[in-house]
Amino acid sequence: MKISIIMPVYNEEGRLEPLVEKLTKYYEVIIIDDASDILVESYIDIKSYKNVKVLTNKINLGYLKSIKYAISKAQGDIIVTLDGDGEHRPEDIEKLIKPIENGDCDIVFGRREHIARVSERILLKIAKYLTKESIKDAGTGFRAIRVNYAKKIQFDGMCTCGLLLMECHENQMRICEVEVDLPLTDKSRRIAWEHILQFFFILKYFLKNRIFRFKYWWI
Question: Cα 34 vs. chain centroid, distance in angstroms?
């Protein structure tokens, strides 16, 4: 199976190129630059690498729209998303895609040992309650998706927390996760306020797809 790596980036100068050097040897790499202050092509000589494509948003569209756009350009059978800041280890990609290659899953989440933000843990619990799925970490940015499903997913909301799991469940995708290694990072452990809005996206999605279905199209 051909693998397409998608990396949404915003101001990742100094962190991105080591990843590109590792990934381009084995995979198609699509970098989606979300209107960075310093554009990717100004500090990486893309022509010196094989299998690398850079897409550039003229304005900042955010993580979800960037992912969706890059997926539409991917040529692989499996889509792997990872962050361009070096948090995710390329060495874990083979472990991540294996359940899909074996025909066991349609999406595989790279499970973190600990979810730092309380608000993210709350959204995950809500989504698990509504879907009855047993996934422990569905908000991770490190995931592998079978391409036909990846192109169906809407990637709606403020982020993937909770809502992506619900959408995968509604699409009857086989969902699983594998534990991955992450380096220690100095990320905020406070509530991300966009998660408050994300709760309403989850509620809207649940009402539309479970309660009213298509009867009330304006929801």
Answer: 15
